[in-house]
Amino acid sequence: MDKLTDISVIKKLMARHNFTFSKSLGQNFLVNPTVCPRMAEAVCEGGGVIEIGPGFGVLTNELCKRAERVAAIELDRRLLPVLSETLSEFDNAEIINADVLKTDLRALIEEKFGQMPVNIAGNLPYYITSPIIMGILEQRLPVGCMVAMVQKEAAERICARPGARECGAVSAAVWYYSEPEILFRVSRGSFMPPPKVDSAVIRLNIRKSPPVVIKNEKAFFSLIKSGFSQRRKTLANSIANTTGRKKEEIYAAMGKSGIDKNARAEQLSLEDWARLTETL
User: Fold this and answer.
1) C-alpha span between 173 and 196 (Å, rounded)
2) pTM for the complete prediction?
3) HEC string of 5-18?
4) For the chain, what percent of residues have pLDDT higher than 70?
5) Given a cut of 70, is residue 2 above it in pLDDT?
6) Which of 18, 47, 104, 274 satisfies CB 3.0 to 4.6 Å to 117 for a cystine?
7) Phi, psi of 102 (to 5 degrees)
8) How many CB atoms lie within 10 A of CB 8?
C-alpha cells in the first residue's frame, strides 16, 4: 500500500478503523517518506526480519520489499485490522499480537525463520527503549544486527563509547554485546503526532564474541552498575557506597588494575572494567 506517510491517507485509515493514538503506548507514526526506506536498506538484504512495533506498517512495507520474510510484533490489538489492510499486497509478512518484552524471541526465530539469517528493526517507544535493547542483547539471539529508531538523546547515550563522557552503564553493556553506531537523525516533525524531542536511527552490529574475556559476567555488569550509580562521585566512592566494600580495598584493586584512584566511571574502558572485576 502506497503513501502510508501521507497525512490524508493516515487520517482516512484512522477514521475507517476508528483508531486513535495511544499516549500510554508511545505511538508516534512516521510521515516523513524518506526515513523508512533508509532504515530498511540499513537492516537487510534478503533473509528474515523481526520488526518491533509496526504501527500502520510504513517500515513493514519497506522491509517486505527487501526481506524474504518479516515477523512484526505489535502490542496494540486495535492495529491488527489496519495492518491487514496496509500489508495486504505482501505474502511474506506475519503480524504477531504480543508484547516484545514477554516474547520468547529465540523460539520465534526458530519457528518462523529456521536457518535463515535474521535481523531486527523497529521504531521503539521512548519509554521502553533500554529494556527492549538490553533484553535483546542479553538473550544473545542469533541475529546479525538491530536497526532502531530511538530518542536522539538515548541514541547518543547508547552509542557512547566506554571512556567517553556520555558513557553510562547501558552504553558499556551495549558495547560489550555489539558495535553501535548512529546512522542518521530524524526531526520531531517527521512524526504524527509530533513528539517533543527529535529522534535518531541507530544500528547495533551484534558481536560474535565479546571484546573482553570475563569469567563472571554477572559480577562484571554488577560492578559497572555500581560504578555508574552515583555519577557525580568518583568511581571508588560510588562502588563503596553501593557495595559496602572498604575504600582502601577498592583503591588497591584500582591500582593493581592500572586505574587512577580519582577516576570516574565514564573514564573506564571495557578492558579497565574487566581488569577491575577480576581484581576485586
Assistant:
1) 28
2) 0.92
3) CCHHHHHHHHHHCC
4) 99
5) no
6) 47
7) -110, 10
8) 8
